[in-house]
Design goal:
The protein has 340 residues and is α+β, with helices and mostly antiparallel strands. It is built from 6 helices and 13 strands. Bound molecules: calcium ion (CA) (2 copies).
């Protein structure tokens, strides 16, 4: 009887042990798995091992941004190489607006983008040559209030010289400049699409700003609303500002601040920049190939924030929309160029 009981116990143990061992193995695997990013780390190691096995190649020189001008007085352009990125902002991002989602993957082809915003001097050359008129009304800031007043890119309610970004520019004005530049050079100048703009502004970062997430570090990288504006602009004491001093109450000469990783200046701050796209209030149905989203041209999209914008508007994902005919003394642009 004892022998029989012993035999039954032994068989039961043999059946049970593998199940327990499997559970233990699973528990051990779960306990030892890193919280994040394990999927990419081993792949990188494998890649290195594969490379080491191949014949050694001469090291590649780092790719410097390609800078060019199509004529001596033309805007300085940077070649932005193709790639994919996540457009929009996650729900957790401070200051986020609803129209910045859903985050979606977008593929952008190689194109060129102005290193800086178009300057007042560059726009003046266009007006001199073409006698283009921007009209005589612009939304300007006076005694703390924005109103549509007499004014234009020459008279915008604050001091500027030819190195500052042109402002009081509407979408039609920006398009007219790009068309003229195309005629002048024989090249395909245009406004950037919204996807191209954000891809370039991020400079391969996923943070709210190209320098990171902290708005109070803005003053080395972008001209936004800051302590200078608060001290010098009448009515600005109640503004929400970046908690630092950038030295400019209104616009700054283009390129006064550090460039992003792609070599572009002032993608955030200084003046808002018109894009080619019509405005839609979410990314549901947005193109994923970097092209402009059209179909509702009542409003066009501006990006990047300006000298009078609070931290929540000086982010890579922020989207502003305006009627194409409207001129504000914080609206400007930069040009893009198709390379094919
Ligand atoms: Ca400022
Ligand atoms: Ca800007």
């Amino acid at each position: 009887m004892r022998n029989l009981l012993g035999l039954i116990t032994a068989i039961f143990c043999l059946m049970w042990m593998p199940a327990q061992a499997q559970a233990q193995a699973q528990a051990q695997a779960q306990a030892s798995a890193p919280a994040q990013a394990p999927a990419q780390a081993p792949a990188a190691k494998q890649g290195k091992a594969t490379k080491a096995a191949k014949a050694p190649k001469a090291p590649k020189a780092p790719k410097a941004p390609k800078i060019f001008r199509d004529c001596p007085s033309c805007p300085e352009m940077l070649t932005i190489r193709s790639g994919s990125f996540d457009m929009g902002s996650p729900g957790s991002e401070a200051g986020r607006a609803k129209d910045e989602g859903p985050v979606h993957r977008v593929k952008v082809a190689t194109f060129a983008l102005g290193k800086t915003e178009i300057t007042r001097g560059q726009f003046a050359a266009f007006v001199k040559k073409t006698h283009y008129s921007t009209g005589d009304k612009c939304w300007t800031l006076k005694d703390g209030n924005y109103e549509e007043r007499s004014g234009n890119w020459r008279e915008l309610g604050y001091p500027q010289d030819d190195k500052h970004p042109v402002a009081c520019i509407n979408w039609n004005d920006a398009k007219a400049y790009a068309k003229w530049l195309s005629r002048k050079t024989g090249k395909k100048y245009r406004l950037p699409t919204e996807a191209e703009w954000e891809y370039a502004a991020r400079g391969n970062t996923g943070t709210a700003r190209y320098w990171g997430s902290n708005p109070d570090e803005a003053c080395g990288y972008a001209n936004g609303a800051d302590k200078t504006a608060q001290a010098q602009i009448h009515g600005a004491t109640s503004w929400s500002v970046h908690n630092c001093t950038d030295g400019f109450a209104y616009t700054a000469p283009v390129g006064s601040f550090k460039a992003n990783a792609y070599g572009l200046n002032d993608m955030l701050g200084n003046v808002w920049e018109w894009t080619e796209d019509d405005y839609h209030d979410s990314y549901n149905g947005a193109p994923t190939d970097g092209s402009a989203w059209q179909g509702n041209d009542a409003k066009r999209v501006l990006r990047g924030g300006s000298w009078n914008d609070a931290p929540r508007n000086v982010r890579a994902a922020i989207r502003y929309s305006s009627q194409p005919a409207l001129r504000f003394n914080s609206f400007g642009f930069r040009v893009a160029k198709s390379l094919k």
